[in-house]
Amino acid sequence: MVESNFQRLGTNYVSLGNTPEEARAKIRETLIRDRALGEARKKALEFARKLFELEPVQPENLEKLARTNGLAVGVSAPFDERDGPKELEVGPEFPKAAFSRKPDDPFAGPLLGRDWDGAYVIALQKRIPSEIPPLDKIRDRVVQDYKFNEAVTLALKEGRTFYQTLTNGLAQGKTFSAIAAEAKLKPLELPPFSLSTRSLPEVEGRLTLSELKNLALATPSGKTSELQFTRERSGVIVHVKSRQPPDEAKMKGDLPAFLGSLRLERQNQAFNEWFNQEWQKNQRGFPLPRPSPNMSSGAAGS
Length: 302
Prior knowledge:
By secondary structure, the protein is mainly alpha-helical. Helices cover 48% and strands 5% of the residues. It folds into two domains: 2-130 and 258-281, no CATH class; 135-241, no CATH class. Helix 1 (2-9) packs across helix 2 and helix 2 packs parallel to helix 8.
């Protein structure tokens, strides 16, 4: 399979490595990862089925079943719904699923890891009530948060002021660079990017890549976006210099890697849809009637 995939790439193998050997190694790694991910999904679903069928329903069932199946089990440190557990590489769906658990519905999963390198089945252990600690214990943190919030407020105020100056200057025929220079601001020059761009280190910590793409996509060529407040609590204005026609050679070179990431993403979506369908078939989705207390069951023969 490695060689057939390599031959299919032709001269585009350079998108995976500088040499044919590096490209073959990357293909082999991807195939092994895909197969391992498929096996992990099957085992996770099988484990979840057994767990959801155990009666009575109690969180301790997770640890008991995991140990009998030789699976690692542990208790996370307390975490909140916004950030999730720090010791696990999981996505935003993990804390969302965890905080939707109830005593009579303590289990969730399988939940895939952030880089799809594992699957988690979780159980609610306990909820820790929110509290306001004494000021003496959190004084330094309160002071730090106050200074940070004041700095953010001031920065956003200056951002609004600059945006007003920017729109007035553009209406007078000035360029974006000239207006920024007059305001003693240095624009961040970005390399060309597209909707298929997977990372852009230049914007990390300022705004998410999806926020940047949405702003750039909604802004015509040669125009400037409105002031946008980001998840990082910063203000961003995007000026689109131009829209370049696609580079055919680069498109062909990047296509295998893009298709690979797209395939993994769709596999993840398909797995979640399949799991939901299987879950609906489970008895917990269609609970069977239980005998009333004054009924008994047994076997009879003649």
